[in-house]
């Protein structure tokens, strides 16, 4: 077994060596979502172009259409993308349907070890099936849901005094979700600098994945589990456990009491708009926005602080975001695409990636002395990455997600039924999806 | 109509009508003006709370629309001072321009596909409408209804078969494919509009031309077409408005090469959030060609849309 | 008349060929003229429709091209018709359809009638009113989410200015009671000009002589309005309703950008629901059955309507 592995590895190494000698110039297309980090990647990749002689093209699809568009591309065996920075939940589909090239041999041949990456990102972005050493991507962009708060408001002596009197605690970064809600309640409707401000801007979006990416931060910490740890796909009593119900009720209570009016369909960009325009004391959002907040003329610098998702009664977790970079199996430039990944995995490149506003998952970068102080949000990023959990990464993830969006939005935003009913119905929907897929 | 006509509206009525219409126009204009104004705001001003009516104008939105930018370290920024006014705008926010954005390409795709399909719809629609108007075609009413019915299918319903079909024919994500598709969708409207119009052209004109020795085809090109110019112009306006602004097919069937601007504009992302000034700038620029086209053909607009409902 | 290329071609053509072209029977010309249209519609509309009907009896999934496809008979149809969620989307669509048509007809007709008074500058203001119709619905939907934001948008401040209410006291797309009206307002804003233009064309087609005759009979203005204006414009109005009705039954881009179907599923119109089934869940067979049901519904309603329209026209 080992021998064949080695043989294959050396063959690939030889092949890539040959390719390098040939110095052929490929036209590579990298597909990703259209957002801040993607622009940074374009800049970063110029170095690769200069070194390798390959030409890089980029196809960036805006987030709301990213999944539809790219999954359509993959499902139809399209050759548009040579490299795909696909969302973490696509990995199951990418592996099972043969959209992605398996990376194990390539990693071995080029001495790229998954042990060098933050473990959660390896599980989240590269492995399928989860928990087995089968790799389909290299962790590319580490992301996680965390919180931003108005440090300048928190620091006001009169507010601190009033808060202390009311809650018997200092007004500071909350240690638990319950404390977070107290803070949000405290700020809700308060007059600050002549404007009415509100507690927390949270994810509530209906159309794609917004409210799911938000509510899970409460659900996990109150005891929600996707399935029985002993028995896969056994969801009854885990998805709709009493803890999960409590978590969902918490999220609704937070939405009802302490969010800006009109925040019924908010995701990444709406919450950031609310925070930047000074409407909210707290903001839930993926960590990718932190460099932008830090640089903002109105709320940047010392005016904002960052903290990981606070703990709940059942532990402390945070929703994983982020993506791995994969080679598309329909590509005719697989060698050049692998060359790009090899280049991207280098510690120096990863370090530059961080400097330019990217979020590397390489341990040698994030654990380097001085990293935690390199940016005001670096510590919160590290702490958050240590507590991540992800949504289903099954090939049927899109159906599972749609069911959750529907059930949760109906309960939390539209106020239909009870939390128990919503989660019971969710178990029903998910069971049906797994049955259709032949997993149950 | 002469002002002195007995049945003409009185002066007072005219005043009242004028005030009501202008009032409505001003209300309806407000969201539009807000979009245009947002295009000239800075990013923080665009999301100001409460909203800003008076603001210092900036071209940030337009610069962001046409370029891609990335954040850079303070050292890098200090070492690379801006050379041009637009680089300065970006530079002042701690960013550098890394290249041109895709907007120009998308816009050109819209021009090619929008005007291409409008031209084709009008040509094919005129021919078909003429035939339906002048000749005895078996099951004419049913065929006309069939043509209308092709507009009833929601785009999302037929997108999958069309996607598979286009891929087999090598038409997926091509200008030609999208032109054919939009032409097919617009044909129903074009045939219905134009048939009504051609119905109104007296047959005697063509008969006279035939007696003068013209062929049928000559009679069509030299007598009917000039008479139908008004109808053709207004049909072209409606076809262009649809093809120019279509979203569902564009988002589902195209990507790199043939994607038009409508799926692109609403999703322009700036630093972290949506870049509202750039979105607004894109919406404004995108509106210009249709407005110009409509204003040029404005005289024909009203007379054209009679849908054959008029019998003289 | 100046000589054109056509004339010279005609003269240069040998008599036999000319006779053959001239000799083309009317029937031939008719078919040559109609054929490209019919062919294109068959290829791009009917062929996919037939394909869709075929798929609707299978469990095909477009994201699993390698999986086996089985015939499932009418099961997809049964599942759809017995799904209460789908009835809810139908209801939402009906609400949207009825009220958008109601307001657009009412306001569109009123505006056309007022503009027809031909006050000074009426042409200019007509052009202004038509502007919203020329925007892209996706961009409009997207931008109105911004206008509807209570804190940073324009809409609530304007309403508050006129009514004295608290601008942050209500949220148009966030409340179950208001969201269905939020989408009606935007669609009405955007498409009233379309109905107005058609009504205006109708009003202008009424010969002056009819009013003059009525005036001689001393019919009141009010009576003239109901016995001449309304009946004469009715066919136009009905056509406007037909086209708007068909468009709004398939409404997708504007609403999906505006509310994404929320809150909950309050504004989840059938097209949005269908898109989720077809392009997010990838249940192609099921979505195809859904599409067929929708098509049959519109087709049926429209054919009844067109019959009624033809009756009105004949009167």
TrEMBL record, chain A:
The keyword Transport applies. Coiled coil: none annotated. Keywords: Signal, Transport. The keyword Transmembrane does not apply. Transmembrane segments: none annotated. It is found in: Periplasm. Gene3D superfamilies: Periplasmic binding protein-like II. Residues 1-25 form the signal peptide. It holds the Pfam family SBP_bac_1. InterPro entries: Bact_solute-bd_prot1, SBP. GO terms for cellular component: periplasmic space. Belongs to the bacterial solute-binding protein 1 family. This is Carbohydrate ABC transporter substrate-binding protein, CUT1 family. It comes from Roseovarius azorensis.
Automatic annotation (TrEMBL), chain B:
Its main location: membrane. The keyword Membrane applies. Keywords: Cell membrane, Membrane, Transmembrane, Transmembrane helix, Transport. Residues 107-297 form the ABC transmembrane type-1 domain. SUPFAM superfamilies: MetI-like. PANTHER family: ABC TRANSPORTER PERMEASE PROTEIN, MALTOSE TRANSPORT SYSTEM PERMEASE-RELATED. Belongs to the binding-protein-dependent transport system permease family. This is Carbohydrate ABC transporter membrane protein 2, CUT1 family.
Automatic annotation (TrEMBL), chain C:
It is a multi-pass membrane protein. The chain crosses the membrane at residues 29-51, 96-115, 127-147, 178-203, 224-246, 287-306. Keywords: Membrane, Transmembrane, Transmembrane helix, Transport. The keyword Transferase does not apply. Residues 90-305 form the ABC transmembrane type-1 domain. It is found in: Cell membrane. The keyword Transmembrane applies. Pfam families: BPD_transp_1. GO terms for cellular component: plasma membrane. InterPro entries: MalF_N (IPR035277), MetI-like (IPR000515), MetI-like_sf (IPR035906), Sugar_ABC_transporter (IPR052730). GO terms for biological process: transmembrane transport. Its main location: membrane. Belongs to the binding-protein-dependent transport system permease family. This is Carbohydrate ABC transporter membrane protein 1, CUT1 family.
